[in-house]
Write a structure and sequence with these properties.
By secondary structure, this protein is an alpha+beta fold. It contains 13 helices and nine strands. Strand 8 and strand 9 form a beta hairpin. Helix 8 runs parallel beside helix 10, helix 10 runs antiparallel to helix 12 and helix 10 packs antiparallel against helix 13. The structure holds coenzyme a persulfide. This is Acyl-CoA dehydrogenase.
């Protein structure tokens, strides 16, 4: 249910203040320690940040997509690692359950996810199946009223913290494509499920990914999302359509932060006897970044509104993710350039954002996959398809 304007403004103010006062001062420390302090995680729980997108009847805030993206604009104003911790419970970790789960599955898990008592993770990617997600090899063999899972999932965000995995596995051994894939809810601690050591990444320190390995892990048939075999790939795609829009919004937030920092630096930094903001070549970089971030913000809001109105926005979400993630890459590059030598130095934090935002063009579908999704839908429409 949509919030009234005053309640939404209060929520956005509260999140904005939390980001400015509590998270921004910790950015360096989180990157150095590669960890978010536990008291900050507790504050995130108290603010309800783990349950933004989970319906109210299951203990979440039940935000509409248009509301959620505005919260993401605020959360984007600091290191993406903070958003990443709550990102899976609000996005790819919970939405399979929210969109396609049975009532019983929702009642069992969603309240814990909304409260942040349990972290969820989305286990789709494998060593041999990334962009070609439909070719995954993790198998789920039926054995009575259970399935036996075998295989390896790779680069799984929040895996080291997760209590619940949405696992995509092949239940039809004769299939090679998306049709034979089923989504399972698998609790961490299930015998045969192990999480590997945290990966060493280029950026987003404080957010953790790891392999998840299944060796004869027995999972009840009652844990198939929605209760039907063969629906898993479609569930994954629906989750990603939504996730791509959310990532677009985070990109806008980060871009706006970098533009603000770049402008402040350009107004302060003196060269040739005046602030560098007075130079037209610096102004051009600021103006280009501002223009692109504004276009991205408009795309996110419009696509979110269309989704709330019940339209299929798969193509628009891909357009949004493609534009926003490429946009924030250009904005981060210009931010380094405007900061000059300081932009290359760790203490100013700009180079950290430059590394952090690189991931946005890769996960939840690379830019090339978004292009493919967009072009395929254009061709299908031209031929009179769905
Ligand atoms: N919503 C609902 N259903 C969808 C869908 C969507 N957005 N996209 C595809 N489907 C359905 C199709 O309708 C099709 O169902 P039918 O067989 O009943 O017709 C099925 O899913 C398979 O679709 P398709 O044939 O298009 O699958 P492909 O194997 O060709 O793959 C891409 C499509 C490449 C778009 C997909 O694999 C993809 O998005 N890859 C990137 C994965 C990704 O984002 N990985 C990041 C990991 S998560 S951090």
């Amino acid at each position: 249910m949509a919030l009234d304007q005053e309640t939404l403004s209060q929520l956005l103010d509260t999140v904005g203040r939390f980001v400015r006062d509590r998270l921004v001062p910790l950015e360096h420390q989180v990157a150095e320690d590669d960890a978010i302090p536990p008291h900050i995680v507790a504050e995130m729980r108290d603010l309800g940040l783990f349950g933004l997108s989970i319906p109210e009847e299951y203990g979440g805030l039940g935000l509409t997509m248009a509301e959620e993206v505005q919260v993401a604009f605020e959360l984007g104003q600091t290191s993406p690692a903070f958003r990443s911790l709550i990102g899976t419970n609000n996005g790819i970790g919970s939405q399979g359950l929210v969109i396609d789960g049975t009532e019983e599955q929702k009642r069992h898990y969603l309240p814990k996810l909304a409260a942040g008592e349990m972290i969820s993770a989305f286990a789709l990617t494998e060593p041999e199946a990334g962009s070609d997600a439909g070719s995954l090899r993790t198998s789920a063999r039926r054995d009575g009223d259970h399935y036996v899972l075998n295989g390896t999932k790779r680069f799984i965000t929040n895996a080291p913290h997760a209590g619940l995995f949405t696992v995509f596995a092949r239940t039809d051994p004769a299939s090679r494509d998306a049709k034979g894939v089923t989504a399972f809810l698998v609790e961490a601690g299930t015998p045969g499920v192990t999480v590997g050591p945290a990966d060493r990444k280029m950026g987003q320190k404080g957010s953790h990914t790891a392999d998840v390995v299944f060796q004869d892990a027995r999972v009840s048939a009652a844990n198939i999302i929605g209760g039907r075999e063969g629906q898993g790939f479609r569930t994954a795609m629906k989750v990603l359509d939504r996730g791509r829009l959310h990532i677009g919004a985070v990109c806008v937030g980060v871009a706006e932060r970098l533009i603000r920092d770049s402008l402040a630096y350009a107004l302060d930094r003196q060269q040739f006897g005046q602030p560098i903001a007075e130079f037209q070549l610096v102004q051009a970089m600021l103006a280009d970044s501002r223009t692109e971030a504004y276009a991205a913000r408009c795309m996110v809001l419009e696509t979110a509104r269309q989704r709330d109105a019940g339209r299929d926005v798969g193509t628009e979400a891909a357009c949004t993710k493609l534009f926003c993630s490429e946009m924030v890459g250009r904005v981060a590059d210009r931010a380094v350039q405007i900061h000059g030598g300081a932009g290359y130095m760790a203490e100013y934090g700009v180079e950290r954002f430059y590394r952090d935002v690189r991931l946005f063009r890769i996960y939840e579908g690379t830019s090339q996959i978004q292009q493919l999704v967009i072009a395929r839908s254009m061709i299908r429409d031209a031929k009179g398809g769905r």
